[in-house]
Write a structure and sequence with these properties.
Strand 12 and strand 13 form a beta hairpin. The protein is about 25% helix and about 30% strand. Strands 1, 2, 3, 4, 5, 6, 7, 8 and 18 form a nine-stranded antiparallel β-sheet that branches. Strands 9, 10, 11, 12, 13, 14, 15, 16 and 17 form a nine-stranded mixed β-sheet that branches. It has two domains: about 120 residues, Aminotransferase class 4, branched-chain amino acid transferase, N-terminal domain (D-amino Acid Aminotransferase, Chain A, domain 1, 2-Layer Sandwich); about 150 residues, D-amino Acid Aminotransferase, Chain A, domain 2, CATH 3.20.10.10. The protein contains seven helices and 18 strands. With about 300 residues, the protein is α+β, with helices and mostly antiparallel strands.
């Protein structure tokens, strides 16, 4: 999926060699999962590399830190500039960018009061989360429920939250599936381990609402906006598990997954068992938008300064 053996990491305002970006084994955020992060894509366009919806991603990054009471040393604008500089410094026209905020001190204990926050910015060469699955993926509904906001803030993209995703994904992989689908505590559909989910019924695009304890994905929002621009009816509503089996189409959406069709759920074939018409069409339109080929969405792109 992603690979990086050399290059530079932006760390607290300075670039350091990739191999020199190190922390202590007792770093609080390593021991307790108290870091927050983002996943952002940079695409090569005819005008050069451009980061997709950088402002929205950095806004969510800042909000995640706020939810967990982390005090950043940098403004959102400074972090946006750091992301642009990281792509430029590493000369990566197509990349996955990982901002990461963490407590760098080494020690034992949960108390984070007064602890300083470090921020790192990394850029990696990237292909696709589901590379080699052009014909769609097979999913399993997980026995692990999606985390509930009454226990852990689901709206924050926090490191510790993703233990839930790892358990679900491992369960699916161990059972011979490509990925998992998690249910909310209510028993209704929530999302994938690292992706939002959509279904299609009678040419209507449907996705779970915020109340399903989902992460409000930037790609999810982009698809809803694309659908509106194309005159495709889209609704946010609760989705029952059995609707995954009977819908015309099901697909994942996320920064790393982009738009990935799901061709079976729990060994039940979805639709005709091939990527559906609407998912395929939206994937094409999304690809054009992220590469600057759709003038309606050029504001979504932040170009790297030459």
């Amino acid at each position: 999926m992603a690979k990086q053996a050399s290059g530079y990491v932006w760390l607290d305002g300075k670039f350091v060699n990739w191999g020199d970006a190190k922390v202590h084994l007792l770093t609080h955020s390593l021991q307790y999962g108290s870091g927050v992060f983002e996943g952002i894509r940079c695409y090569n366009t005819k005008k050069g590399p451009a980061i997709f919806r950088l402002r929205e991603h950095m806004c969510r990054f800042m909000q995640s830190m706020k939810i967990y009471g982390m005090v950043p040393k940098f403004t959102q604008r400074q972090l946006e500039e750091a992301a642009l500089s990281t792509i430029s410094k590493n000369n990566l026209p197509d990349a996955y960018i990982r901002p990461f905020a963490f407590y760098p001190d080494a020690g034992i204990g949960f108390n984070v009061r007064g602890k300083s926050t470090s921020i790192a910015m990394m850029a990696l060469r990237f292909v696709s989360l589901f590379a080699g699955h052009n014909k769609g993926i097979r999913c399993k509904t997980s026995t692990w429920l999606r985390i509930n906001s009454s226990a852990i803030p689901a709206a924050a993209k926090a490191s510790g939250n993703y233990i839930n995703s790892i358990l679900a994904s491992k369960e699916a992989n161990d059972s011979g599936y490509d990925e998992a689908i998690l249910m909310a505590e209510s028993g209704l559909v929530a999302e994938g381990p690292g992706e939002n989910i959509f279904i299609v019924q009678d040419n209507i695009l449907i996705t779970p609402p915020k109340s399903a304890n989902i992460l409000l994905g930037i790609t999810r929002d982009s698809i809803l906006r694309l659908a509106k621009a194309e005159g495709i009816k889209a609704v946010e509503r609760d989705i029952r598990k059995e609707e995954l089996y009977t819908s015309d189409e099901v697909f994942f959406a996320g920064t790393a997954a982009e738009i990935t069709p799901i061709i079976s759920v729990d060994s039940r074939i979805v639709g005709d068992g091939v990527p559906g018409r609407l998912a395929t069409s939206l994937a094409s339109k999304y690809s054009r938008a992220v590469r600057g080929e759709d003038r309606r969405f050029t504001a979504w792109l932040s170009y790297i300064k030459s």
